[in-house]
Each structure stands twice: as structure tokens, then as C-alpha cells.
Amino acid sequence: MLLFLHGAGGFDEDRSLAAALAEELGVELTMPRLPDEDMSFEGWAAPVRQALSERGVNDLVAAHSFSGSILVRVLAERDWSVRRALLLAMPNWGIDGWDVGQYDLDGAEPPQEVTLHHCVDDEVVPFAHLALNSAQLPSAGVRVHARGGHQFDGQAAALLS
């Protein structure tokens, strides 16, 4: 199963990326609607925790953009059953990124296998955020995609390799 966490306001916009990943994997897709009305860390972390509690060791979690910022912190809270997570075009909220302390990664790295993915031509989250996130998550794998934009257009297979 693939648990896909959409970006801010991106439930509809992220559906094609989520579906392409699930199809590439040959698995069922679960994509909960995260709240547009409450953009606080806890407003998003609570439903992410709930979704993670329903996943097993063979499930993959992918989080796009804003939800990646939430997921990485939630994963670090405890040892969840999932073992692998893809963080797609995750913004950096530190002082050298978008400088919003509420979302900044402020603790230990998650114990799961985490891979950061970013497209050079991302028009929403600057490519420079990848290096900032990589510095905060030194154990994470890093994958650079030459094109695909913020939505990783045509990159589903590459995200899984």
C-alpha cells in the first residue's frame, strides 16, 4: 500500500502524482485529505499520525511539499511501523529557507529510511531547499531530478528507483 500525503491545498492537484506512484508500484493508494483550514503543525500532524498508525512495515509513505515537513517530524516522534518514506519537494523552514519556526525540523532524524527528492526546475519550492534539508537530515538519501517541476511530471518511476 502507498500512503500519499498531499501538499498544502494540493489534495486535487497531487492526485495524478499519487496515482502514478501507486500504479508504478502496483499497490493500492491511500490519500487522506489534510486540512486546508488549519495549517498549524499540530493541525496536520494529528491526521498524519492517524494515517501512519494504520500502516505496516511493507507500506511506503510519500509526502509532497508541505506534508513532507510535517511527516519528517512525526516520523521522528517514535518508531512507527513504516520503514521507508519519500519526501518530495520538501520546503526548508529554517532561517536560510522560508524561516517559519513552527515547521522547522527541530529534533532528531527519523529512524526510517528517508529519501529526499527535488526537481531542479521546481517553480514552487526552490531547488536550494534540497541542500538545506540534506544538511539537517544527513542520513537521508538524496535524489536530484533534472526536470519534472513541483509535481514531478513524468518522474514516478524515477522516484521509486
Question: Could you please describe the fold and organization of this structure?
Answer:
There is one protein chain. This protein is an alpha/beta fold. It has one domain (2-159): Rossmann fold (3-Layer(aba) Sandwich). The protein is 30% helix and 17% strand. A 6-stranded parallel beta sheet has the order 2-1-3-4-5-6. Strand 3 (60-64), helix 3 and strand 4 (84-88) form a beta-alpha-beta unit. The mean pLDDT is 96.
Draw up the topology in text.
Elements: E1 2-5, H1 15-25, E2 29-30, H2 41-53, E3 60-64, H3 66-77, E4 84-88, E5 113-119, H4 128-136, E6 141-145, H5 156-159
Parallel strand pairs: 1-2, 1-3, 3-4, 4-5, 5-6
Could you give a short description of this structure?
The protein is of the alpha/beta class.
Which descriptors apply to this entry?
globular; 161 residues; 5 helices
Q: Stretches where pLDDT falls below 50 for ≥5 residues? A: none
The biggest sheet amounts to: 6 strands, parallel
Beta percentage is 15-25%
Here the CATH topology equals Rossmann fold
Sequence of secondary-structure elements = EHEHEHEEHEH
Q: What number of structural domains do the residues give?
A: 1
Overall residue-averaged pLDDT value: 96
Strand order of the largest sheet: 2-1-3-4-5-6
Instruction: Indicate the radius of gyration in whole angstroms.
Output: 14 Å
Query: In CATH terms, what is the architecture?
Result: 3-Layer(aba) Sandwich
Bulk shape:
globular
Write down how many β-strands occur, each being a DSSP E stretch of 2 or more residues.
6
